[in-house]
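Worked example 3 (structure in, sequence out).
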């Protein structure tokens, strides 16, 4: 499927389409039969879906492909497109509408002005036309004018015209990518080359997967079209829009042992400032799905100078009046399939999409409550509270059920209780009583209850809103990140993430970012709780390695660079990926840190009471075969406070290390000490109380300074980093201690600099390492006889010949050197790198352009070599130089004036337009 680039079209009905019934009995069920479509089919027929019927007496399920009847045109709800913020007309348009006189209070004025803006914004968006077609037309116009300029290079009018067409093309490309990225909602791809093709495929794939054409009702009957939409709306209206009567709530006095004091309660309801509002708004991601009003946070951020005052007035008005406009508190329910073949409404995950104004209000409330939750919520609740970790309960559960698999012993059982839909069915009166009993200020209670009780809902089905009903119970779940994901099939999850034909559109740089995102998200949850089997970590890294080197596919690829080298930091010559096994250990170290630092959590209390029983963690660790933690936590050093929390013999407080390393248990016991003695027990009147024979045997004992004991302070634990400095504990600090700190490669700044072209620098990195698949290297694996250079056919195809000893590549490089004023002695490839890495160290625009030119030259020479070798295509030296020059121009155009000293003179030198103006096209 990946090789021919097809995927399952939207489907429902049965998931398992083949069954095996040996001797008439139920046997194996499998998903064998599929209805597949390529990208073009899904784009041309977005409404088509497949229905898999019951197989009855057959062993295969009948497949029915349905093409829904074309519906009459209806206007889609307004949705602000972030790419409009890139247009010069955007801010003047907003400013013009915002000057309109609107009577009423603050929230009403804000909503009315946003409504007035919708029509002009729609008109502005429509004037841009189809983004894909616009980019194509601008590309054709640019190519035409460049051909004319090539025939008449001295024509100044053509040069000016070409600059305007270049600007139009770049603006259109940037708008297209911004538009597609917003719709694709790909958060991990932050840096890379143009990824419009990838975003386009992701968007079409999501539309196909999320589309709903039919649904099973509560009686098990299939409903299609408007009937299906009614089933969905009725389901949520019954679920969220019906209030159930509850008996009078009476709480015993002993139930609420923790309450807010008056100072804490008042701190939560202090005046809301404009800075607080702006901070909350700008903390909302640009590409998050908008609410019913259609506006994204990007709109408000870009137009903040114009709309900021009204926005702040509206938000402050809510906190002062304790009332919210229902229009602001409306919510769209979006539906995302939870399973591959959804049938009933319960197979879709509802996601609340709220207006940005409401998000800002709720974020301010959450920020004010967050810091005080720890003193209210029991230790048993380890999730959602700052400073706590849900994995504590996972670890505690493992301790509690230890030995349950053994048959002998007393009878025992474990019960997992899940209160289904608890979050969505919370009774509002119950919530209000709880807040009151916890001691929240009346203003805070009114803020929360107003947000909760005035909500109204509509359901987004296939891009259009259906239904409208008031909420009667439940709390909106804005994020699904709060729920624990099933760990089953961790390797399969990684495979599914990378084994997608859409990923074939990504460059090396894009694939590298996907790997970084997957490694930093999917395995982290479980890697923080358990020591993953080495077989699992190796399998995940194998998938990543093959994906990186095999054009975005999950097949076996020949690695250009060893994975151990890739996992080195960039300053040491690698790519900075994390070794998963070492990262696993670093994550687990935070658990051990919590034990020895005495964190106030239920799991730590359990460990201290039942496992350590008053003994040192280090002492017990040796007995429990915790060799990995012992090796990696030796760098923890206690800072003495009152000396009563630091074990004299096992904690690593002395310059000699743990004293149990230099003194045996027998020696300690014979001297009258106990292995559980603390530092304070051997300090008498400010002096060490060591036996004389010990000082004679180990002089360092007497020489070590006596700590000043502070009665009011507890002993503290700090982390010593690889440089020997005391730093706050962090997982990254632990991971850094695993890295072999080599000398920094001198060419680091030549490859990894800010605003680089990622795909070019990736190839430059491979070239500097000598890992490109030149013919001399390929001969070692394939035994090929033809290893001559495709450019000159006279020398061996190798790194040193290709860069830049071959006459072809030498001509390209010499022309580029002249263009960017690079002066260096003639030498081989490695001499050139050595010289440039020493000379291009300044942070100015000239050195920046030279670095871009080097990377682009290497990239395009390598690309031209591959075209000739595999595609049987060829370009002249002049065309390659022209392509490299265009890449440099595009990069300069993307920079702002003043960046590293970029000025109009340099723009004129590279024929880059200084101001953004659209050149008038010929009629």
């Amino acid at each position: 499927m990946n090789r021919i680039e097809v995927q399952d079209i939207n489907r429902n009905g049965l998931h398992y389409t083949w069954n095996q019934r040996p001797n008439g009995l139920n046997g194996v069920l499998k998903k064998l039969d599929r209805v597949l479509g390529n990208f073009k089919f899904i784009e041309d027929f977005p409404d088509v879906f497949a229905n898999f019927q019951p197989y009855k007496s057959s062993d295969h399920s009948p497949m029915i492909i349905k093409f829904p009847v074309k519906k009459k045109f209806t206007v889609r709800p307004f949705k602000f497109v972030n790419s409009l913020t890139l247009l010069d007309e955007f801010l003047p348009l907003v400013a013009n509408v915002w000057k309109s006189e609107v009577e009423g209070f603050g929230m009403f004025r804000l909503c009315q002005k946003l409504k007035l803006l919708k029509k002009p914004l729609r008109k502005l968006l429509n004037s841009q036309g189809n983004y894909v077609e616009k980019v194509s037309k601008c590309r054709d116009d640019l190519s035409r004018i460049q051909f004319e300029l090539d025939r008449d290079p001295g024509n100044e009018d053509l040069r000016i015209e070409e600059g305007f067409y270049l600007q139009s093309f770049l603006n259109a490309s940037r708008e297209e990518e911004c538009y597609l990225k917003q719709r694709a909602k790909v958060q991990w791809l932050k840096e890379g080359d143009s990824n419009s093709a990838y975003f386009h495929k992701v968007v079409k794939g999501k539309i196909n997967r999320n589309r709903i054409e039919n649904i099973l009702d509560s009686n098990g009957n299939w409903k299609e079209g408007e009937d299906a939409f009614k089933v969905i709306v009725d389901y949520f209206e019954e679920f969220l829009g019906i209030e159930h009567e509850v008996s009078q709530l009476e709480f015993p006095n002993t139930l609420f042992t923790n309450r807010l004091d008056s100072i804490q309660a008042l701190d939560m309801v202090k005046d809301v400032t404009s800075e607080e509002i702006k901070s909350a708004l700008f903390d909302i991601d640009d590409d998050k799905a908008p609410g019913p009003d259609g506006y994204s946070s990007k709109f408000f951020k870009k137009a903040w100078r114009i709309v900021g005052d009204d926005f702040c007035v509206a938000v402050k008005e809510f906190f002062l009046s304790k009332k919210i406009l229902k229009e602001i508190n409306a919510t769209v329910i979006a539906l995302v399939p939870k399973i591959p073949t959804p049938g009933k409404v319960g197979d879709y995950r509802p996601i609340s999409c709220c207006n940005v104004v409401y998000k800002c209000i709720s974020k301010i409330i959450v920020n004010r409550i967050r810091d005080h939750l720890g003193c209210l919520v029991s230790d048993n609740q380890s999730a959602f509270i700052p400073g706590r970790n849900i994995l504590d309960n996972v670890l505690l559960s493992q301790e509690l059920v230890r030995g349950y698999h053994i048959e002998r012993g007393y009878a025992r059982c474990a019960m997992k209780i899940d209160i289904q839909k608890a979050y969505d069915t919370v009774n509002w009166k119950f919530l209000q009583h709880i807040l009151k009993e916890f001691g929240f200020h009346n203003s805070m209670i009114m803020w929360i209850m107003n947000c909760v009780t005035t909500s109204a809902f509509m359901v987004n089905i296939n891009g259009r809103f259906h239904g409208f009903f008031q909420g009667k119970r439940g709390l909106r779940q804005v994020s699904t990140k709060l729920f624990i994901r099933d760990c089953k099939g961790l390797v399969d999850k990684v495979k599914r993430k990378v084994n997608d034909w859409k990923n074939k559109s990504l460059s090396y740089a894009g694939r590298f970012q996907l790997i970084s995102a997957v490694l930093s998200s999917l395995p982290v949850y479980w890697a923080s709780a358990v020591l993953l089997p080495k077989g699992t970590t190796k399998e995940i890294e194998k998938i990543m390695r093959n994906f990186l080197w095999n054009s975005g596919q999950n097949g076996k690829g020949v690695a250009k660079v060893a994975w151990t080298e890739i996992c080195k930091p960039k300053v040491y010559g690698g790519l900075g990926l994390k070794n998963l096994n070492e990262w696993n250990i670093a994550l687990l170290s935070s658990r051990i840190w919590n034990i020895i630092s005495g964190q106030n959590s239920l799991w730590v209390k359990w460990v201290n009471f039942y496992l350590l029983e008053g003994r040192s963690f280090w002492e017990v660790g040796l007995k429990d075969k915790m060799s990995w933690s012992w090796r990696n936590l030796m760098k923890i050093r206690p800072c003495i406070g009152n000396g009563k929390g630091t074990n004299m013999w096992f904690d690593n407080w002395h310059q000699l290390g743990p004293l149990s390393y230099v003194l045996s248990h027998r020696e300690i016991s014979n001297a009258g000490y106990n292995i559980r003695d603390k530092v304070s027990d051997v300090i008498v009147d400010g002096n060490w109380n060591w036996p004389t024979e010990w000082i004679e045997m180990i002089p360092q004992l007497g020489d070590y300074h006596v700590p000043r004991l502070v009665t009011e302070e507890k002993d503290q634990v700090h982390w010593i980093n690889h440089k020997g400095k005391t730093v706050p504990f962090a997982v990254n600090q632990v991971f850094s201690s695993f890295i072999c700190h080599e000398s920094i490669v001198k060419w680091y700044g030549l490859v990894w600099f800010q605003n680089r072209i990622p795909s070019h620098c990736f190839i430059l990195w491979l070239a500097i390492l000598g890992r490109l698949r030149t013919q001399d290297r390929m001969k070692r694996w394939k035994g090929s006889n033809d290893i001559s250079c495709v450019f000159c056919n006279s020398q061996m195809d190798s790194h040193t010949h290709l860069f830049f000893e071959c006459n072809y590549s030498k001509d390209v490089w010499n022309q580029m050197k002249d263009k960017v004023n690079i002066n260096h002695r003639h030498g081989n490839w490695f001499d050139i790198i050595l010289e440039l890495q020493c000379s291009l160290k300044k942070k100015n625009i000239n050195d920046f352009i030279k670095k871009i030119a080097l990377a682009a030259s290497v990239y395009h020479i390598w690309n031209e070599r591959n075209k000739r070798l595999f595609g049987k295509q060829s370009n002249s030296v002049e065309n390659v130089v022209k392509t490299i020059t265009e890449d440099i121009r595009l990069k300069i155009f993307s920079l702002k004036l003043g960046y590293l000293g970029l000025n109009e003179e340099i723009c004129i030198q590279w024929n880059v337009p200084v101001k953004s103006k659209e050149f008038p096209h010929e009629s």
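Notes: The CA atoms of residues 330 and 456 lie 5 Å apart. Residues 589-738 form one domain.
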